């Protein structure tokens, strides 16, 4: 199971490199089911793994001028603040045992995995659905558009803070349809926002968890290697075709997690 976990870690990076998102949604399930890390600690590890891996992708996209910095900084500001508040105050305030229904005890860990499964299903729909991505060019943002984008940043921050997922599957459609960025620039911009959210969110966890740095750095190195592979292939392969197949895989994983948690 651990060997499969190490292989999947590379796939996480490849997905981030090819389509700018989706791969991070697998990080927590891989840590929980293949490496037997607790769900709460897995969300913290995921922030570090996804954050560092995204930095590798940011560097490659920066060199090819595929990052829209004004949008990244605007969305990043609202989402980063939300991530920090979530990791520092909201998540620690949630008790491990929530409530009981008869003989069944509903725990924080169980709810974390069920919410993650719902998130995976939503992400899979976003990836499977045919994309009408190409746009005529960036649009001027009025105050109402900036307000909507700020609210969207808060939602991204909640997803990242609570689930440890980068939120690329939410970011990329927003960047394409709300800001009208071209697909490749949306992917690069998404990776920068994911990197900022994840790494700053992880700093909010320092001192709260006993972190196995050797294990964490091993998984991160594999995911970063996958990112380099994915970025290389991304120049030759149409990522939208791979996105559909990966979406079906994520959908099946989401259904599996829901089934497993309820059977337990």
Textual characterization of the structure:
This protein has 264 residues and is mainly alpha-helical. It has one domain. It has a two-stranded antiparallel sheet.
Topology record:
Layout: H1 2-19, H2 27-34, H3 39-63, H4 69-93, E1 97-101, E2 104-107, H5 108-128, H6 143-163, H7 168-177, H8 183-203, H9 213-234, H10 239-263
Antiparallel strand pairs: 1-2
Helix pairs in contact: 1-2, 1-9, 2-3, 3-8, 3-9, 4-6, 4-8, 5-10, 7-8
What can be said about the biggest beta sheet? 2 strands, antiparallel
Report the count of strand segments: 2
Please, what is the average pLDDT? 81
Class by alpha and beta content: mainly alpha
Sheet with the most strands: spatial strand order: 1-2
Radius of gyration: 18 Å
The global form is globular
Order of helices and strands: HHHHEEHHHHHH
**Spans of at least 5 consecutive residues with low confidence:** none
Distance between the termini: 19 Å
Assign a percent range to the helix content: over 70%
Q: Tell me the count of domains.
A: 1
Work out the strand percent.
under 5%
Q: Number of helix segments? A: 10
